[in-house]
Amino acid sequence: MVKSNKRKIEDIIIAVICFFFILICLLPMVNILARSLSSAQAMINNRVSFWPVDFTWESYFYVLKDSAFVRSLWWTALLTLICTIISLTITILASYPLIYDNLKGRKFYNGMMLLTMYFSAGTIPNYLLMKQLNLIDNPLVLIIPNCLSIFNMIILRSFLYTVPDSLRESAQVEGAGPINVLIRIYLPLSKPVLATLALFYAVGRWNGFSDALMYVSNPKYAPIQLKLYQVINNRSSIETAQQEGFAAPVASEGLKSAAVMFATVPILLIYPWLQRYFIAGVTLGAIKE
C-alpha cells in the first residue's frame, strides 16, 4: 500500500514537471496568438503579453485578403501531401530489400547510404547540380532532393527486422513473391512506424523554406514558410499599415503574428490524428539490429 501511494506521488510529480515544460514551450505561441488578436493601440502601449487586449480579427482578415498568401497556403498543403507520399514510398522501397540476408552487396548499400548522413557536397555544389538538372525555379526542386531521409530509412529498416522471418517464409511457401510479402505482411504491421515517418516528412516539408529560398524565384511556387519569411522581412506590410492609418511598426507586428498563426496551425492539426501511432512508432522503430 505504501509502495502504491509512493508510486502515485511519483507519477503526479512527473506529470507536473511535463506540464511545466510543455507550458514553457507553448508560451511563445501564446504570445504570438495574443498579439495577432490585439489592437494596434494596445501594442503601441505595450500592453500585450499572453492575453489579447482590445480583441480584434483585423490582422487575420487582412491576411486572408492577400490572395498570394492564401495561394501559397494551398500550394504548401498540396506540396506537403505529395512529398509525404513520395518520401514514404521511397523509404519503404529503400529499407525493405535491406532486410534480406541473401541480398548481394547489402553491406555496401548500407555503407553508402550511411555515408550520406555524415558527408554532403555543400550549398554551392548543390545549387550547381540543381542548375545542371534544370530544376531551378521548378516545383520538382522542392520534391526530388529531399524525398528520402536516411535516418527515417534506418528507423523503418530496424522495425522491419523485428518482424519474425517465419511470417515471410510461410508466405513464400504459399507462393508469395517479395512484393506480395511487402504489401500483405510488412506494411500492415508497420502502420505505427509509417504514421510516425509520415509525420516527420510532413512537418519537415511544411516547415522547410531554405530550399525554396535558394532554388525558387517564381512566387507561384513559394511555400508558406518562404512567404512568411518575406512577410516578416518585407517593408510592404509596413507601407500597407501606414495606408490604413495605423502606426507602421505595430500594425506590421500584428500582421506578422497573424501570418505566423496561419503558417503554424494547419500542421499542428495533424498531430491529434497521428498521436496514437506516434509513441508506438518511435518505440518500435528504435529497436536496433
Characterise this structure.
With 289 residues, the protein is mostly helical. The protein has two domains: 2-44; 60-285, MetI-like fold. Helix content is 73%, strand content 0%. It has helices at residues 2-36, 40-44, 58-65, 67-95, 106-118, 123-132, 150-162, 165-173, 178-189, 191-207, 210-215, 224-233, 236-243, 248-268, 271-285. Helix 3 (58-65) crosses helix 14 and helix 13 crosses helix 14 (248-268). The radius of gyration is 24 Å and the shape is globular. The protein starts with a helix and ends with a helix. Residues 244-251 and 285-289 have low confidence and may be disordered.
Question: What layout of secondary structure does this protein have?
Answer:
Blueprint: H1 2-36, H2 40-44, H3 58-65, H4 67-95, H5 106-118, H6 123-132, H7 150-162, H8 165-173, H9 178-189, H10 191-207, H11 210-215, H12 224-233, H13 236-243, H14 248-268, H15 271-285
Helix pairs in contact: 1-14, 3-14, 4-7, 4-10, 7-10, 10-15, 12-14, 13-14
Descriptive keywords:
289 residues; mainly alpha; MetI-like fold; 2 domains; 15 helices; 73% helix; 0% strand
Sheet-strand content, in percent, reads under 5%
Distance between the termini: 41 Å
> Mind telling me the CATH class of the largest domain?
Mainly Alpha
Radius of gyration: 24 Å
Structural class label: mainly alpha
Are there runs of 5+ residues with pLDDT below 50, and where? 244-251, 285-289
- Please trace the helix and strand order, writing H or E for each element: HHHHHHHHHHHHHHH
CATH superfamily of the largest domain: MetI-like
Spatial shape: globular
